[in-house]
Design goal:
Length: about 350
């Protein structure tokens, strides 16, 4: 059964397909586009606690904590190594206006894990739960705290025991929801995501809120994960980059209206142009062009001539270049294509 409505403690989310935190991607423009196309909730790119304690919100850094009224509810995701710094970082996110504070215990990037952050905490339940307690105590009671995890460091029995120790301890410490990516830290983004583990976690958690993550590259994937596992919602990560229509498609499919076709080229063009406009508003004209290349590359996957369009977006330097790609490759309103599952790894390394 697909849940009709998702809540994280006192925060009403709504439709249970939301946008995950994506380092280097889920900034304000991406979140706004996702919300306009059906995402009921989105998380900012993961932020390092040490960074939050020292950053000054000047022109070149203001984007990290930039929010607008039309994107609430919105979550802020936090990563670090020291419990005390987590608490201070969480307070900074609250003061910036985030509605939910999410603790990252899931990032598998080697450099992050090597610095005792992200997924490394799944190897040390005592420290992980100290982080949870300090973070929960540091923020106001009406601000929910959530945790993002993977199913363990690896597939050993010891890793499994530590996963459930952290899961149970987090709920006992007042965490409102836990998101579980059904791969291990060692797997990173390789191999299939084990949805059967999500079903086990949800049975174990009972009426406590569990969200699932991993291998969500289409609207049917999102609904199928909820049907197969019983989780209360899903967070779309790599599958939402360049395809924000996945949220609208999931809503239509869940409402029994069938899976909509991929957006036409004119529908794509309008969204891609607006995404650039929002990014230029936030970052400024000089910075925007090179920064938006990675988004153009992802958007190109929905174009019937995606290889040529991808090559064109790679060369972007300015708004003029961006519009030139749209004028050339999106002039005729052809049907879009369904993007193939994304193979590229997505880093969750914070700034």
């Amino acid at each position: 059964m697909i849940p009709a409505d998702l809540r994280i403690a006192n925060v009403h989310i709504g439709f249970p397909v939301v946008q995950a935190a994506l380092s280097g991607y889920s900034d304000w423009p991406m979140r706004v586009i996702a919300r306009r196309l059906g995402a009921s909730y989105a998380l900012c790119e993961v932020l390092l606690d040490q960074f939050l304690l020292t950053v000054k919100l000047r022109r070149r850094t203001r984007h990290f904590l930039y929010l607008t009224d039309d994107e609430h509810p919105v979550g802020g995701q936090l990563m670090g190594a020291e419990p005390a710094q987590f608490a201070a970082g969480a307070r900074r996110l609250v003061s910036a206006g985030f509605d939910v504070i999410d603790i990252n215990f899931g990032c598998p990037v080697r450099k992050v894990v090597g610095r005792l952050r992200g997924g490394f905490h799944l190897s040390q339940p005592e420290v992980a739960l100290e982080i949870v307690r300090r973070t929960r105590d540091a923020v106001p009671p009406d601000i929910p705290v959530t945790v993002k995890m993977r199913r363990g460091i690896d597939d050993t029995a010891e890793s499994r025991d530590k996963f459930f120790a952290i899961l149970d301890g987090a709920y006992q410490s007042g965490v409102a929801a836990v998101t579980v990516h059904a791969r291990t830290v060692r797997q990173r983004y390789e191999g299939p995501s084990q949805w059967a583990f999500l079903a086990e976690v949800k049975r174990h958690a009972g009426n406590r809120t569990v969200l699932g993550s991993g291998d969500l590259f289409s609207a049917p994937d999102c609904l199928e994960m909820m049907l197969q596992t019983g989780v209360d919602g899903v967070t779309v990560a790599r599958g939402a980059i360049g395809n924000p229509w996945i949220f609208r498609q999931a809503r239509e499919l869940a409402a029994g209206r069938g899976l909509p076709p991929p957006p036409t080229l004119h529908e794509q063009r309008d969204v891609i142009r607006e995404h650039y406009r929002l990014a230029e508003e936030l970052y400024g004209e000089k910075v925007c062009g090179p920064l938006m290349r990675k988004f153009g590359i992802k958007y190109s996957a929905l174009h019937p001539h995606h290889e040529q369009v991808r090559d064109a977006f790679v060369k972007i330097r300015s708004r003029h270049d961006w519009n030139a790609v749209l004028d050339r490759w999106y002039a005729e309103d052809l049907p879009g294509v369904t993007p193939v599952g994304l193979a590229a790894e997505q880093s969750c390394e914070p700034p």
